[in-house]
Amino acid sequence: MPTQQIRIDLSGWGWYCGITAIALAAGLWQWQMMPPAYDEIFSAVNASAMHPFRTLSYYMLPNNHILFNVLNGLLFGWHQHLVGTGRVLSLLAYVGISLTCFRWLYGLMNSRPFAFIATLCIMFQFATWGMSAQARGYECQLLCGWLAFASLYAFVQRQRGTYMRINALANLAGYALIPSWSYCYMAQLLFVAPYLLWNRHMALRYMRYQAATLACVFLFYLPALCFSGKAALTGNKYVRPAHMSAFLPQFAGLGKNFISHCFSGLAAEGSILSYILFAMPLLLLFTGRKMDRLVTGFYVAIWAGYLVVSLLVRHTPFHRTLIVQFSISMGIVAYTCFVMAGIISTYARRIRMTVMILLFAIPMLSFSIYELRYDRNNVNFGLYGNDVNGIHNGITRDLGIIPAGSTIAFSEESFYCYYHCHRLGYKASRCATGTEEYYIKRTDEPLPPSMAAYSLLQNIYDDHQVYKRN
């Protein structure tokens, strides 16, 4: 049987070029807003800079975005600024997300201008834009989420093997990036389950691909399981199950926060407007179109997947973990607004386009402008919950007490200072020999016996200490 080919529509190449340019500009804007955060430096120093097998096998706490760090090390291991190269990977993923969203929305709307407007809402969403230039695996996982979602949606409609292969690769990469992909994977299972029960042939094809995917995921994590142990992945405080009495109040409280965060704080946490926006895609059930019912089904599934996995593990994730849910929800809400505006415009045929502009284009563009301005002065708090800019400025200022070109040794936990000293031109080493002129450690770390000849010079910013050899 000949292989069915998927035709890629490139007739609107101007739109794709425009979206690429906007995504690059928005991502670079995010880049210059924030210096490297602790998490970025931790990944670069302790994972990407190491041998690829060590990165694969050493699952340090709280986590290691393994595939992201392996790719960063393999592609850019020769480069000294692995935080910067990691940000490049995320920026490219952001471009890919924007193009994928536009292509999917155009397939639904059959209008490139309106699909472009809806894509802007997704691109500028705080959760999506915020990670667009961060040296972490979240933006790459979001790209996998959109590819998995779009390919599964297409497979249910057309049942082509190519879509299933794209879906399998997206799931494999999603799991390899961060194990929290379980939320997205559960959503896909819940979405496709009714179709598999009804269509046995589809079920067999789907299950073969899933079995192969899960087998590859197991093999990918096998080095980490063998050398780091299961407890490294499941026993740390960020994923350890909580008692149900403690979990349920936190789960309910954070649910309201997640809904508000999904729409970039447009509606206050717990407000009626936030719930209206969140429930809006359910209106698609009443349009009478199968395509809209599929979209609604996936919308329900992505949040049902979050609910099921959270209850199973009795743990509420960070908002960064739900970046896929936030982004896809924003896309589906934008599409719902388009459909509702289209239904209303049918009653004004002579001015239908004017009605669409008034009810869809202008509100969506206004929302995109709002998203661009939302909390931009506190991006570091919104992403990481701490003053990334203040920590960077304080550390780099206080490191000035050390003369340029000095030799400095660092403790295991002072990787943040190590990174900046290396970038500032100091002779930095993480393997202390006792011959270095200075030694930097965290305040709560003991002074090693080999450093007995060093005396405290000064406490510096963010609980670090500088010692000088006597």
Helix content: 55-70%
Low-confidence stretches: 1-8
Multimer state: single chain
Shape: globular
Radius of gyration: 24 Å
Largest sheet: 5 strands, mixed
Determine the strand fraction and express it as a percent band. Answer: 5-15%
Helix segment tally: 20
Task: Give average pLDDT, whole number.
Answer: 90
H and E string: HHHHHHHHHHHHHHHHHHHEHEEEE
Protein name: Glycosyltransferase RgtA/B/C/D-like domain-containing protein
Transmembrane segments: 12-31, 88-106, 112-131, 138-156, 176-197, 209-233, 258-286, 298-316, 322-344, 351-370
Keywords: Membrane, Transmembrane, Transmembrane helix
Q: What report would you give on this structure?
A:
This protein has 470 residues and is mainly alpha-helical. The chain has two domains: 13-384, no CATH class; 388-469, no CATH class. The chain has 20 helices and five strands. The chain has a five-stranded mixed β-sheet. β4 (454-460) and β5 form a beta hairpin. α10 crosses α15 (290-313). It is globular. It starts with 12 loop residues before the first helix and ends with a strand. The relative contact order is 0.10. Residues 1-8 have low confidence and may be disordered.
Brief description of this entry?
The protein is mostly helical and 470 residues long.
List the SSEs and their pairings.
Blueprint: H1 13-33, H2 38-48, H3 52-57, H4 66-76, H5 82-109, H6 112-123, H7 126-130, H8 138-158, H9 161-177, H10 182-198, H11 200-227, H12 230-234, H13 244-262, H14 272-279, H15 290-313, H16 323-345, H17 352-373, H18 379-384, H19 388-398, E1 407-410, H20 415-423, E2 427-429, E3 438-442, E4 454-460, E5 464-469
Parallel strand pairs: 1-2, 1-3
Antiparallel strand pairs: 3-5, 4-5
Helix pairs in contact: 1-5, 2-4, 4-5, 5-6, 5-8, 5-16, 6-16, 6-17, 8-9, 8-10, 8-16, 9-11, 10-11, 10-15, 13-16, 15-16, 16-17
